[in-house]
Design a protein that fits this description.
The complex is a heterodimer of chains A (248) and B (356). With 248 residues, chain A is of the alpha/beta class. Chain A has a domain of 168 residues: Rossmann fold. Chain A is globular and about 55 Å long. With 356 residues, chain B is mostly helical. Chain B folds into 2 domains: 227 residues, no CATH class; 75 residues, no CATH class. Chain B starts with 7 loop residues before the first helix and ends with a helix. The chains are: A alpha/beta (248), B mainly alpha (356). At the A-B interface, helix 2, helix 3 and helix 6 of A face helix 8, helix 9 and helix 10 of B.
Chain lengths: 248, 356
């Protein structure tokens, strides 16, 4: 296995009496596409939220490039280069697409004085190129809130690319998108991984998509890690099949 | 840029016309100089409120706090250069201090400097506490702070408590005080407009718009949201503080409840004006302030006794039936004027490349 970029070890998180994550440990390899699957309510999104610092974890440790991040805020973790997209797509509705892209620029080095800078033409051009990459170039001066759901998804993805993250955590990127757009999205995800060198960590319900996309898959069930391995072996793992069909 | 927007040349003509009107108004109607000065303060109110409420989505009901703080800070600074403040205020105006012209203007300059600085410090400190609140909680929290400030000042003897402070007398002939402060109010309102206009052309505007649209998403992108919120409020506080200092000196007598921290009049007016003109735009607050000012003058003149009923009805109508305001209505009618439009795809074959 190649170099680890995210290392989750023994992470537990409970909401009241509900244990959403119970001693989950996994590793995301740098440069790869790692998948996270599991039935509804198995704790996938909770784990994502824990990793990006959305809520404090009860126990365990989360390391990003060897650095402990489980106590850092969402914004600080994002500035380290780990970005997430939301299950419910979130864009800035009353700003146009170009503005959405520009505000997504990495804020790693931005200091107090950068607040009042203007955007150089080169950045605007980069924003346009990325909008072109996801097929929204002609919509670039429309308000993001007026785009269709699928287009907002694509915009959110382009915004994530604009941020130049090292790792992108995608929470069900294809949910609610029509089948034609799904193929285009898968292809772009792969290109983002290969051409831009962004490590992807993807929650996905659609088995066809994740088998096609990921090179390593973790499967969760009832807050615990159930199985892991390459797509083919996870797909044929009896425990995974049982979990999905409710044999537990 | 945007071909449908008014050209630079037309904008220059507009600016020049407004400037000429501003200069001529007190010359043509010298009896209304103070009222015209209040107009400029209204413009400043609406512009500073909109930066928070319209552009950033934080509806503050307590921005008047900085107006009052600026007013009192300036008064104390002005008096203290020639007299003991506690003694001066304890005498309830019985002590008449003659300020020599150079003393007066030095005191005013010093007072204005402090009136800009202290509100900024107050805003920075309050932002640590209050920006943990969102939506209506922020509105109520800020309102509470403004009311508390009024009550505290009201019972603070050092600054005269509820008896207020008689401000140093302007050294000049009749009418000269009004003209002086009219010009000062006009200058600070124009500076405020230019500052806001400049700010809205930088990254800052996208950042505060992003905070308005989805603050969690902005944080998830790594934006320093706390920093932007603090600076936005500080800019508002700076201009409000100076406006308060000028207003106090122009009025000649200040007291906490009705002059310095009038949450129910000026504090609400600044919200009403912005909503009327259309929040989240540069010109909306200016237009709203102008209309609101005109309406206020008309009702105060012809409907005395009913003026608050009329203003109340206006606010109700505005909030229930006309939430988008004038600029928002215009934006919905003519989106292309605001740069919202479908563009052609690029000519060279990008379709095939992007695989769509």
């Amino acid at each position: 296995m190649s170099e680890t970029i995210i290392e989750v070890s023994g992470v537990s998180k409970a909401f009241g009496g509900v244990v959403a994550n119970n001693k989950v440990s996994l590793r995301v390899a740098r440069g790869g596409i790692t998948g996270l699957i599991g039935p509804n309510g198995s704790g996938k999104t909770t784990l994502f939220n824990s990793i990006v610092g959305y809520h404090p974890i009860d126990q365990g440790s989360i390391r990003f490039e060897g650095r402990e991040i489980s106590r850092l805020s969402v914004a600080k973790i994002a500035r380290l280069g780990m970005l997430r997209t939301f299950q419910q797509t979130r864009v800035f509705g009353k700003m146009d697409c170009i503005q959405n892209m520009l505000i997504s620029l990495p804020h790693r080095q931005s200091g107090w004085r950068d607040m009042f800078k203007r955007y150089p033409l080169s950045l605007i051009e980069r924003a346009e190129r990325l909008l072109e990459f996801v097929g929204l170039y002609s919509k670039r001066r429309l308000l993001a809130g007026s785009l269709s759901f699928g287009q907002q998804r694509l915009l959110e993805f382009a915004m994530a690319l604009m941020n130049e993250p090292k790792v992108l955590l995608l929470d069900e990127p294809t949910a609610g998108i029509n089948p034609t757009l799904i193929n285009a999205l898968i292809e772009r995800l792969k290109r983002a991984n290969q051409d831009f060198g962004i490590t992807l960590f993807v929650i996905e319900h659609n088995m066809r998509v994740i088998m096609n996309l990921a090179d390593h898959i973790y499967c969760m069930s009832r807050g615990e890690l159930l199985a892991e391995g390459p797509p083919a072996s996870v797909q044929n793992d009896q425990r995974v099949i049982d979990a999905y069909l409710g044999a537990h | 840029m945007n071909p449908a927007a008014p050209s630079n040349r037309r904008m220059a003509v507009l600016y020049a016309a407004l400037l000429v009107a501003g200069v001529l108004a007190p010359i043509l109607f010298p009896g209304h100089t103070v009222q015209f000065a209040v107009f400029w303060i209204f413009v400043l109110f609406a512009l500073t409120w909109d930066m928070m409420g319209g552009q950033m989505g934080y509806n503050s009901l307590g921005n008047i706090l900085f107006f009052g703080v600026g007013m009192y800070v300036c008064a104390v600074a002005q008096i203290s250069i020639v007299y003991d403040v506690a003694e001066y205020t304890a005498a309830n105006g019985a002590i008449k201090v003659d300020f020599a012209p150079h003393q007066y203007f030095e005191g005013l300059a010093l007072g204005l400097a402090w009136a800009g600085l202290i509100p900024v410090v107050v805003a920075a400190v309050l932002s640590w506490i209050l920006f943990g609140l969102r939506g209506p909680y922020f509105a109520i929290g800020t309102l509470g702070v403004a009311i508390a400030a009024a009550e505290l000042t009201n019972s603070w003897d050092y600054v005269g408590g509820g008896m207020g402070i008689a401000m140093p007398v302007y050294p000049g002939g009749p009418g000269s005080r009004e003209r002086f402060f009219y010009v000062a109010c006009m200058i600070i309102a124009i500076l405020c407009f230019l500052t806001v206009r400049w700010v809205y052309r930088t990254r800052f505007s996208l950042a505060i718009n992003a905070i308005r649209d989805d603050e969690d998403k902005a944080e998830a992108l790594g934006l320093h949201t706390g920093r932007y919120k603090m600076v936005a409020w500080s800019i508002s506080a700076f201009f409000l503080g100076i406006a308060g200092a000028l207003f106090g000196n122009m009025t000649g007598f200040i007291e906490p409840i009705d002059t310095a921290f009038p949450t129910l009049t000026f504090g609400i007016f600044m919200v009403a004006m912005t909503l009327l003109g259309g929040k989240g735009t540069l010109w909306g607050p200016v237009i709203g302030a102008t209309l609101f000012y005109a309406l206020r003058e008309v009702t105060w003149t012809y409907l005395l006794g009913w003026q608050y009923v009329v203003l109340g009805l206006l606010i109700i109508f505005n909030v229930v039936y006309f939430q988008q305001g004038i600029m928002g209505w215009l934006r919905a009618r003519r989106p292309a004027w605001f740069g919202v439009r479908v563009e052609a795809d690029r000519a060279h074959g990008t379709k095939a490349e992007s695989g769509a």
